[in-house]
Amino acid sequence: MSGGGAQSNTIKYLSDRGDSKQVIDQIISEFESEHDYTVDVTYTSKGTSTDEQLQKMKAAGNPPDIVFDTSADAYRYQRNGNLAPVSEAVQGTGLPDPVNVDGESYFAATMVEPLMGWYRNDLYQENPTNWETWRSEAQRVTEQEGINGYVVQSGQTNNADTQITQYHWQNDVNIYGGPSGDIEVTIDNEQNRQAAVDTYRWIQQMNEYSPNGAGWEWGDAIAALQQENAAAIMSVGGLPILTIQSNRPDLVERLSPTAFPVPNGNQQDKWWAYMEGHVVWNDGNATKGAREFVNFFSKSDKFMDFVLSAPLFQFPPTREGLDSDAVKNNEVIQQHPDVMELVRNNWDAFTSILATGQNGQPNILAADAYGQQVFGQSAEQMLVGGKSPEQTVDWVAQKLRSLQG
Fold it and tell me: Rounded to the nearest 5°, which phi and psi values hold at 49?
C-alpha cells in the first residue's frame, strides 16, 4: 500500500531510542546527504512504549512514517492494514523475518532484547534459580535485611505482561495451540490448567515479599532497585544497570544477572526476547522515503554502532552479530561477562510472543493479548482484585477467548 496523502520530503520517525540519539543522528545525516529527504525524529522516554505518542500523532492527523516497535506490534499493525512492506531491508540480508505475509516483509529487525532478572549479590547468598529457593530467599531478605526481596508487577503494562507470561513458560504452561489460522486457547485445558494454577499460586506467594507493583513499568521496577526498595527485579537485558550506572555506580557491582525462576526439575526452554526494529506506516506523508531510510539503516556501516549504543540491553539480531568482534571488543560488555554467558548459553531458547503458534508459527491472538497486556491484568485480578489462582486461570482463559471474536 502507498502513502495515504500527498508525499512529503520530511520523514517522521517515532522511536523510544533517545539514548542512541548520537549514532541515529549520524545515520540520518549520512542518509540525508545521499537522498532528497529530511528525517524528523520524535523520541519517547526510555522504558515507555511509543504507542501513546503514536495515537496522539494519528489523532492529530500527523501520523509517523516510521515507528520503532516490536515484532508483535508489527504483526498486529500489518493485520490491520497499517503497514507498507520493507522487504528490501530484510530479504537476502540474513536478518530474521518474523512478519512475512504473502512473501512481503513488514518488519526490519535491528536487535533482540531478552528478558533478564537482576538481584543484589550482597543480600542474596547465591543465585536462587528455582521457585522454592527464590521464595525462601525473598522471605529471608525481606525479614532480615529490611528491603523487599522481590518485585512482582501487575496491571496493564508491558513489564507486568511479559513477567507473568514468562512465569507460565517457566512452568511449561502452553497458553496457546494450533497453527496461525486456527489458534486455540489451551491454558485451561487438562494438560495446562493445574500448571497455570500453580504458577499463579507461586506469584501470589512472591507478592508477599514485594512492594506494590501494580501498574509498574520497566522504569518503576528499576527505580525500586536503585532506591534500594527492592533486592531483585525481572526486567529486560541490561537496562537496569545501564540506567542505574549514572546515578548509583556503587550499586552496579552489587547486581548480578539471572534467568527467570524455574520450578524444581524444569529446564530453560522458552525465553521471551523482544525483537525490535522498524515498521513503515502506510498512511504517513513520506512512505516511499521511509522505506528507503529503513533499508539504508539496516545496511548502514553504523548498524552495529547503533546496536552497541546500549550494550547489554540491545543485542544483535543474529548469532553471527552476537559472536562478532564488535561485540567481543565492546568495553561495557567486557565488564559483564556473566551477562554475555547467560545470553550465549540460552540463545537457542530465545523466542517472541509472536512465535507461539504451532511449530513457532505467528500467533495473532498472542500479539493481541500482548497489545492489551492481558496477562499483566490477570495478575492484578488476583493480587489486587482478590481472585484465587483457580479463578484467575478461568478469568484469563475467558479474556483470551473474547479476543478471538
Answer: -75, 155
DSSP letters spanning 18-60: GGGHHHHHHHHHHHHHHSS-EEEEEEPPTTS-SHHHHHHHHHT
pTM for this model (two decimals):
0.89
Which whole-number Å values give the CA distances from 238 to 112, 244, 322, 324, in the listed order?
A: 12, 10, 15, 19
- Whole-angstrom distance, CA of residue 202 vs CA of residue 205: 5
- Distance, in Å, from the CA atom of 84 to the CA atom of 64, rounded to the nearest integer, reads 12
Q: What is the Cα gyration radius of the chain? A: 21
Is residue 354 within 8 A of residue 178, CB to CB? The reply is no
- Give the three cell numbers for residue 77: 499493525
Q: Which of 322, 313, 325, 327 is nearest to 345 (CA)?
A: 322
Place of cell 533486592: 231
Cell numbers 544483535: residue: 316
Cell digits of residue 349: 531458547
Which amino acid is located at 243 in the chain? T
Residues 234-260: b if buried by 16+ CB within 10 A, e if exposed: bbbbbbbbbbbeeebeebbeebbbbbb
Residues 219/138, Cβ–Cβ less than 8 Å: no
**Nearest Cα to Cα of residue 41 among 61, 72, 20:** 20
Q: Tell me what the mean pLDDT of segment 33-62 comes to.
A: 84
Cell of 389: 489462582
Alpha-carbon distance of 302 to 60, in angstroms, equals 33
Within 10 angstroms of residue 329's Cβ, the number of other Cβ atoms is 10
Instruction: Say if residues 401 and 190 touch (Cβ distance below 8 Å).
Output: no
Amino acid at 270: K
pLDDT at 1 over 50: no
13 beta partners: 41, 66
| Strand-strand pairing, 255-258 and 184-185 | unpaired
pLDDT in tens, 202-238: 999 999 999 999 999 999 999 999 999 999 999 999 9
pLDDT(7) > 80: no
Residue 68: strand pairing partners: 278
